[in-house]
Design a protein that fits this description.
Elements lengths: L10 H6 L6 H5 L1 H10 L3 H19 L4 H11 L4 H18 L2 H10 L6 H18 L1 H22 L5 H10 L11 H7 L4 H6 L12 H21 L29 H6 L3 H19 L6 H15 L3 H12 L3 H20 L1 H12 L5 H15 L3 H19 L3 H14 L8 H8 L3 H29 L1
Length: 469
Amino acid sequence: MTSTGRDGTPADEQEAGPRRSSGLASAMRPVNSVVERYIPSALVFAIVLTFVVALLALLLTDSGPRDVVVAWGDGLSGLLAFITQMALILLLGHTLANTTPVRRLLVRLGGVPRTTTAAYVYVFVVAALASMITWGLGLVVGALLAKEVAEQGRRKGLRLHFPLLVAAGYSGYVIWHMGYSGSGPLTAATEGSFLAEQLGRTIPVSETTFTWWNLTAAAVTVVVVGLALAWAAPRGADPVVPLPEDADYGAQPDVDDEVQTPADRVDASRIPTLLTGLLLVAYLVLHYWDGGTATLDIVNWTFLALILLLVRNPFELIALVKNAAANVGEILLQFPLYAGILGIMTATGLIEVLSDAFVDVASPTTFGLLTFLAAGLVNFFVPSGGGQFAVQGPIVLDAAERLGVDPSVAIMAVAYGDQWTNMVQPFWALPVLAIAGLKMRDILGYTTVTLVASGLVFGSTMLLLGLTA
C-alpha cells in the first residue's frame, strides 16, 4: 500500500521530486544541469577574468608585463567607496527584511492566495515589487514569502509545489536593476563616481530608472513572467514537492536583550534608534526638498532610516546586522578584483580597443540590443551588477558616445543584461536557496522560464529604443 502525504501526494513522489515539468522547464533541464555542474564560484570567475583581461592587454595594446601588473595593483583600491556602497545595499536590504514589522507583514501576506496558480504568481509579484525597492530586500522577501505561502497553503489544503514557489520568489529579482536600488543608474547619478567621471557629468535617475520606457518595461515584464510561471506550474495529477513538515527556514536571529546594567537599559531602549531614524528622515526630506536626486548614498540612507524606525532597540539592530553581515563577505572580497580589472583596462588603453571592436559591429539601431545580449553573457562571469558596471560600463559608454547613442540607453542595456541572466547564474540564488533549504537544480527549470519570458521583453525594449531613436 502506497503512503501519502498530508496533501494527498504519494510519499515516494514527494521525496523524489517531480518526474515531469511543464513545457520549457522540462526542455531546458539538460542545459540547466550543465550550468549547475560546471559553473564555478563567482570568486573563481573574478580571478580567471583578471588573468584574461591582463592577457588581452598584453596582446592588444603596447603595454608590457610591468605596466599591466602596476595598473592592476593601482586599480585594486580604486573603487573602495563604491564597494562600501554595494555592501551596504545588501546589508541594509537583508536587515530591513528581517525586522519584526516586515516579518509580521510577510505572515499576513502569506495568507492571501486562495488557489495554487495564484500562489505562484502572487509570490513572484510581491518579490518583484520588493526588488524594485531594493535588491537585498527582494531576495530575502522572495524566499521568506515562498515559505510562508507554502506553510499557510498547506493548512488550507492547497497542493503547492514548493520549488516553484521559491523559483517564483527568486524570479522577482529579474527586474531589480530597473528599480530604486539599481547600481548602474545610481552610480551614473552619483557625483564623483567612475561612470560620472568618464561621462564628464552625472545622469539623474529621471533619465534612466524613472523614464516612461523603463517603468513600462518593468510592468510588462511582471505581467509576462507572471503568466509564464502560471503556465509552467504543475497541473492535475502532476507530482509536487511540498514544504517539509518540520521546515523552519529563515528564523529570525536571537536578540540578547537581557537588562543587567544601566548600559543595558540604554541598549534596550527604543529612544536612541528612534531619534536617529527621525534625524535621518529629516535629512532625506531636506535633500529632496532642495532638489536632490537619488544616489547610491541616498538610497542606503533611506533603508537605514526605515530600519532605525522599525527596530525595537539597539539590541535588535545589532543582532539583525550580525545576521545580515554573513552575506556581505563575497562582495568585499570580489570587488577589489573587479576594480583591478578596471585599472588594467583604463591604464593600458584596452577600453578603447574593445570599444573599437564593439563600434565595428553595432549601429545606433542595434546598439541597445547588442549591449543587452553582451551584458547577459558578461553576467555569467561578473554576477554582481556593480562589478559588471565596473568592468563593462566604461566600454559601452565609450562606444555609445562614438555612435551617438544616448548614454542612458547604454546604462540600462547593461542593467537589463545583468538582471536577465541572474535567473540561471547561481550566485545570487544562494542566499534564497539557503533560506528555503533547496538546491539550484530544484528551481533552475522554472527560473529558465523566467529567463526566456523576461528576455523577450528586455530585448524588444532595447530594439524599439534603437528603432525610434
